[in-house]
Design a protein that fits this description.
The protein is mainly alpha-helical. Among the domains are: about 170 residues, Rossmann fold (3-Layer(aba) Sandwich); about 35 residues, no CATH class; about 90 residues, no CATH class; about 55 residues, Arc Repressor Mutant, subunit A, CATH 1.10.10. The strands form two sheets. A five-stranded parallel beta sheet has the order 4-5-6-3-7, sandwiched between helices. α7 links the parallel β5 and β6. α13 crosses α16. The longest helix has 21 residues. It is elongated, with a radius of gyration of 44 Å. The protein starts with 5 loop residues before the first strand and ends with a helix. Pfam families: AAA_16, GerE.
């Protein structure tokens, strides 16, 4: 039904003419409820209904349409409208009803006899005496009864909550006196409106009125009213207005193609609400405070911003919640986004800006995040807020982390509006260059040049450019940082090496870490050292010397000495650089004292330069690497897992070098722990393509190779390990302890039957380890060499493994020691030294279990059981052959080839060869041609 009616003004004033009013769209069920009551009234029984809804929901329109339907059904219709401005006028609503009843003919064209004028029945002032009151009430009742005797009567009162007290008494007076008359009463009321007069709503409507709650229009009705297509836009319009017809009308007047509904509002609506709320104490101020704070609103901040005490604030909130202007929640908010925007639009620009700045300060003092404080600072334009600059810069930093560089640009552009020193302006411009680089790469160089123009202090400029190098650590970001640093260095070069050295140092490290090929020539930097006398410069010089020593793999002692000198002062920036950190932690993992010092240097209160890295992450990762090197796998994995979760939350696990290193370390540790599912799940989340440009990608490749070799994919694992090795060699990395790829490639090649390749890799690894000299790395290389040099006799292999145990026994590398003990024990058992093997394997099982290395502990335990069984069998065998050696020797004596024996016993040919070699040695023979007689001789001795 689309009747030509008037739609309601939300503050109870004059109705606003509407063509095909929005208030009737989608109101068929409500009107059906009202018309369903007509039959009872026509049958001579009084009925009533109450229509409730929030501001602007179309209560007046529904009442008017219901009156027209009632008139069409034969009712005499009298509708009165209460107004906020007429509440004090006694009998105002009652007189409107009387005038309608006394001047409306019962039948069209048939005049009604004269009845008293409304003023005669209800005077302008309330009756004073009891007699006057009774006469006035009776007169009102007789007027209604007289009309009802002529035919059914429809009495409608719009905005009953605004009616004057005397009119309310009149309605209450007649309610029970017309129960057997054809009278229908329909009242409309604002939802949640508290009755403050002497007459209750139920006294006017009866005890059991039909209550009709008006709700927002559905999307299809919104689309019809706004004349837009039914779809996502119509649904968004319904969402921002709640489907409220009055708000939709205001929105329609402003609707334009491509409109941003998030900011849509109407100053007229804001004014209406502000005026309407004036009758409630402090409500207008609280309304503005809720609009200003938005999602940051809480009770304490609202009261402070509005400048009222808590009791007054609570009363205002309670009122606005009851009338559905605010949501009923612990954190008050305006019910509809359009209403919030309208309240803000009604505020003068200067008032709004100052209030936004006050809100920002309150949030800042309450410990809100920089992003939330910054959101208010963006609205506080043309207001000088000196303290806001650092907050805006932090907010911009976080926005880039969250993948919203456009918001970062807004924060930094707002920061540039403040009065800034040249130093701070230069720093902000560089930060802005980075944010714009993600939005519009072509604009970033211009920002860098603009920043260079603001250099007024060489030391500060070098510091700011160095900070940029440390902040932008990967991919295109790193290239932007390196190029910018080059421009700064060229400008600062005239100030001498002391001015430019820190920047050159960080640029060199960034260059070295951002490419997989050979790093820049280190000799270019050596030439800069002679004139440097500054202690900080000497520290960085020692750090670069340590790094060069690590990369050349020449001397662990020299590298440790240089690192110690670099850690002698408080200069954490060098160790925060990802490339430097990655190699430094690998080299210092076996030096507990220096590792502790490194963690102290890294564990600062300030945020890391690299915005990808959480605070404290570098110290946590350094401790995890040291724990892993020492064999404390469980604690190391806890450190790594906590960091990976934080990197995942920031979405940078595949992009930040530190995050990639942490993930790779966790994969490797999970392999040693036997948690292959954890390692595979983590590997599945990493984008290998995105990590290709990172130096730490090499370690990730190494970790994947180890995982594949351990989970039944030795060929793929071997390829990964060799690929890691080729990249490191191409990079000039000769340090064997960064990623011991040769050792694991040699073991994987051995499992694949590629003995020559395994031997070559093991020899290269041992040479590199001996050159480096650190016990853990030497011991691990000796273990690998022992595995590949088992020639059947086992003397050379046992010598190497025994040496590995001796070297590792004096180190902190418990896991490497457990592995060496396991391999030595297995070798001893295989060569008939069961008693020695049992002692060795007992230590291996205990040590590997202590490390948490379940696969290794399981292998040691199985070998220990076999050794004990072998010892028992050997006591019954003159030649001490193990059970497996005897079976293999017996099958060989019967003419089976090594391949046939391997297939029959499900062994590798290499294992068959080892068992045969052991049998030859114990039987005192040189080959299989002597096996038959040797075994026969043994059996005859046993028989005797």
């Amino acid at each position: 039904m689309h009747t030509e009616v008037n739609s309601e003004s939300p503050f109870g004033g004059p109705s606003v003419p509407k063509c095909r009013a929005a208030g009737l769209l989608g109101r068929d069920s409500e009107l059906d409820t009202i018309t369903g009551l007509f039959r009872a009234a026509l049958d001579g029984r009084a009925v009533s209904a109450v229509v409730v809804g929030e501001f602007g929901m179309g209560k007046s329109s529904v009442l008017t349409a219901a009156g027209e339907l009632a008139e069409a059904a034969g009712f005499t219709v009298a509708i009165a409208t209460a107004s906020r401005l007429e509440t004090h006028l006694s009998g105002g609503v009652g007189r409107q009803l009387i005038e309608e009843l006394t001047h409306t003919p019962a039948d069209p064209g048939s005049p009604r006899p004269r009845t008293p004028h409304a003023a005669e029945i209800l005077p302008d002032h309330p009756p004073r005496t009891e007699r006057e009151q009774t006469e006035a009430l009776d007169a009102f009742f007789h007027t209604v009864r007289h009309a009802a005797e002529q035919g059914p009567v429809f009495l409608g009162i719009d905005n009953i909550h605004l009616a004057d007290p005397w009119s309310m008494r009149c309605l209450a007076y007649i309610r029970h006196r017309v129960e057997h008359l054809p009278v229908m009463v329909v009242l409309t009321s604002l939802i949640g409106q508290l009755q403050t007069g002497e007459v209750a709503l139920l006294e006017m409507s009866g005890c059991t009125p039909a209550t009709i709650r008006l709700r927002g229009l559905r999307t299809r009705h919104v689309a019809e009213f706004l004349r837009v297509s039914l779809g996502r836009f119509a649904e968004e319009c319904r969402k921002v207005t709640g489907g409220n017809p009055f708000l939709l009308g205001a929105l329609r007047r402003r609707l334009v193609p491509g409109m941003d509904l998030d900011t849509a509002g109407s100053a007229m609506i804001g004014e209406v609400l502000r005026v309407r709320m004036h009758e409630y104490t402090a409500a207008p101020k609280m309304l503005e405070a809720v609009a200003i704070l938005g999602e940051d609103a809480n009770f304490d901040l609202l009261a402070q911003l509005a400048g009222v005490d808590e009791i007054t604030a609570l009363e205002a909130i309670d009122t606005m919640v009851r009338v559905h202007l605010l949501t009923n929640s612990h954190r008050p908010a305006l019910t509809y986004r359009f209403v919030r925007n309208s309240v803000l639009a009604d505020m003068p620009l200067a008032t709004r800006a100052v209030t936004q700045s006050r809100a920002a300060r309150l949030l800042h003092d309450a410990g809100a995040t920089p992003e939330r404080v910054g959101a208010h600072l963006l609205e506080a334009t043309a207001v000088r807020i000196p303290w806001a600059v650092d907050v805006l810069r932090l907010a911009a930093r976080h926005s880039v982390v969250e993948g919203d560089p456009e918001l970062s640009v807004r924060f930094l552009s707002r920061a540039l509006e403040e009065r800034l020193s040249e130093r701070k302006r230069m720093a902000i411009l560089l930060q802005l260059a980075h944010a714009e680089f993600h939005c519009d790469p072509d604009s970033a160089p211009a920002r860098v040049r603009e920043a260079i123009d603001h250099i007024d202090d060489r030391e500060t400029a070098a510091f700011v450019a160095t900070a940029m190098i440390l902040s932008l650590c990967c991919g295109p970001d790193a290239r932007l940082a390196i190029n910018s640093a080059g421009q700064f260095a060229a400008r600062l070069d005239a100030g001498g090496p002391d001015a430019v050295w820190p920047l050159l140092c960080m640029t060199y490290l960034a260059e070295a870490g951002s490419r997989l090929g050979p790093p820049p020539d280190f000799r270019d930097f050596e030439q800069q050292w002679a004139p440097l006398n500054d202690p900080a410069a000497q520290q960085s010089r020692s750090g670069l010397l340590a790094l060069d020593t690590v990369r050349s793999g020449t001397s662990s002692a020299n590298a440790v000495r240089h690192f110690g000198e670099a850690l002698s002062g408080e200069q954490p920036e060098l160790f925060e650089q990802p490339y430097f950190f990655t190699l430094a932690t690998a080299a210092l993992a076996d030096e507990p004292a220096l590792t502790d010092k490194l963690c102290q240097v890294l564990d600062t209160e300030r945020l890391p330069w690299d915005f990808h890295v959480p605070k404290g992450a570098l110290a946590t990762l350094a401790r995890g690497i040291a724990l892993q090197a020492g064999g404390d796998l469980v604690r190391a994995s806890v450190h790594y897992e906590s960091l990976v979760r934080q990197f995942d939350e920031r979405g940078v696990t595949s992009h930040c070098p530190v995050a990639v290193l942490c993930a790779a370390r966790l994969i490797e540790t999970s392999v040693d722990l036997g948690r292959h599912d954890v390692a595979n799940a983590l590997l599945d989340k990493i984008d290998f393509v995105a990590t290709q440009a990172l130096f730490t990608h090499n370690y990730l490749l190494y970790a994947r190779g180890r995982l594949r070799a351990a989970t039944g994919e030795p060929e793929l694992g071997y390829q990964d390990l060799r690929g890691c090795g080729r990249r490191l060699e191409h990079h000039g990395m000769r340090f064997p302890g960064f990623a011991p790829w040769r050792a694991h490639a040699a073991r994987t090649a051995l499992a694949l039957g590629r003995t020559d390749a395994a031997t070559r890799l093991a020899e290269e690894d041992l040479d590199a380890a001996e050159r480096w000299g650190a016990p853990r790395i030497r011991g691990y290389a000796l273990t690998t060499a022992g595995l590949v040099r088992d020639d059947g006799v086992g003397e050379e292999a046992e010598r190497l493994l025994t040496k590995a145990v001796d070297v590792l026994g004096g180190s902190t590398a418990k896991l490497a020691l457990a592995e060496a003990l396991t391999e030595l024990g297995v070798l001893q058992a295989r060569h008939g030294q069961a008693e020695k093997a049992i002692g060795t394997l007992r230590l291996a099982a205990r040590s590997s279990k202590h490390c948490g290395a379940r696969p290794l502990a399981r292998r040691a335990a199985e070998a220990l059981r076999d050794a004990r069984t072998s010892l028992t069998t050997a006591k019954d065998n003159e030649h001490g052959l193990t059970k497996q050696e005897y079976r293999v020797a017996l099958m060989a004596s019967q003419g089976l080839t090594n391949r046939e024996i391997a297939e029959a016993l499900h062994l590798t040919r290499r294992t068959v060869e080892l068992h045969l070699s052991g049998a030859y040695r114990k039987l005192g023979i040189t080959g299989r041609t002597e096996l038959t007689s040797a075994l026969g001789r043994s059996q005859r001795v046993d028989a005797d």
